[in-house]
Task: structure prediction
Amino acid sequence: MREEIRNQLNQMSDAEYRDFSASLIPASGRGQMLGVRLPRLRAYAKEIAKGAWREELSYREDLYFEETMLRGMILGYGCTDIEELLEGFADFIPRVKNWSVCDSVCSGLTLVEKYPERTWDFLMPYLESKEEFPVRVALIMLLDHFVKLGEDGKKTARRRKITMEDLQAEEEQGRYLEKILGVLDREFQEGYYAQMAAAWLLAELFVTFPARTFQALKTLRLDPFTRKKAVQKIRESRIPDGQVKMYLKDLKF
Result:
């Protein structure tokens, strides 16, 4: 089956897309790339997940960048049992060496939203890792599956617009908001991609819970780089109005 998969990936490859993608990912973390576009890779993962997908996950070595990403996508599409998913994810995380595999796979693991407490406990050791990508994986999982998660599985939507008044207003609190802010209450020295994930997570909190996040932004024990990038990402969003963006720009943390 493995050779069949590799042949299929080669047939789906796009040299122009490969060169573009390779320019966005450090060579040290990407390995050999074929250039398979994400929609085609996801569709192929869904197809494999309908069959003997566990056989695919049992294969230990990946030759191509796309094989590693496919492995994670199959896990997301194939698993219906949370313990099997987390066991497979624990095997997968050490294979993550770049932001692209991390972010593309994490977004598809939606089963975890049905078991948030179990997943939270699973992620905590990775958040305490001294290595860059385990920390990023855990932070992106929080961003994708915990920021907006409310009671009874209901989701809290992003704000459509944020004004100065919203920074002081009463607002509904997210189920995991305080716990996520607790996770962010430290310096992130594990590496650039962990820092950028923390900044992205904080920016997403801001556009969902602006008042509480703004308050936290002034007190969190973030390293200067991560705090700067979080403010930059907030200001790049279309949701805060011009006055909010200027206020954040001038604010000295």
About this structure: The chain is about 60% helix and 0% strand. The radius of gyration is 19 Å. The chain has a mean pLDDT of 94.
